[in-house]
Amino acid sequence: MRSSNPVFSRRGFSRDNGYTGFNAAPQAGAPVTGADPYAQGTAANPYATNPYAQQDTRYGAPQAPTRTGAMTIDDVVTRTAITLGTVVLGAALAWALLPVDEANLGKSYGIAIGAALVAFVLSLIQSFKRKPVPALIVSYAAFEGVFLGVISSAVSTYIGPGVVMQAVLGTMCVFAGVLLAYKMRWIRVTRRFYGFVMAAAMGFMLLMVVNLLFAVFGGGDGLGFRSGGLGILFGVIGIILGACFLALDFKQVEDGIAFGAPREESWLAAFGLTMTLVWIYLEMLRLFSILSGDE
Description:
Blueprint: H1 73-97, H2 105-127, H3 134-158, H4 163-183, H5 191-218, H6 228-258, H7 266-294
């Protein structure tokens, strides 16, 4: 199964090396269908560490293989906490050390843009690597934090001091809501769901790029997707897309644990979740900025 998140697309938590659709993860005692990429002795599993992994057929249907050094939910939570903590620390330092005022505005914005470009390059490098590299992921989080810290400081200074807190709380609520809906199976991640989200995301990004080009060459706000009523509408759409990506990320983590993905892959899960949460926060920040400006 291919992931919706770009960091999973190179080597995702999947049954094979290609897209096979969003099938249910194997449950304890249920037969394992499809090729397990983490099975011992296969080319798809360069990480296998347990030479004794085998299927247990004593009770009829084969059981999901158990392996030493397999990823657990605790591993994912720990790595995600480290990555998000680095983002928060970088943002706090940038907020304190790079004030967005008349005297330092150009310098702060320049550093923020540079940090965003470095974070983007690091994310691309990690996306095309077969194995997660913790140093790359943590570095990405640090530079992303610097970018978010300067942008958040600018919003707090020139739009309203409460907008940043609203965006943070909004991001937390979206994460908690999607997690609850996913655990309760109110959201069912299927192949159709995947296709719809990917098509919507590509259309959304294309419109944003077109709007940016019109803004750069035509001046003003381009096509108006970043302000007014259209800005509010596209802000809500961006947040909904982020929530959908969260559901797809949860599905990837669930499948990775069910198939015994190696523990180091929890860094990849943390990376993907961090990217999605950054997306949601930026859309929240933009939405509340527009709403605050209209008041």
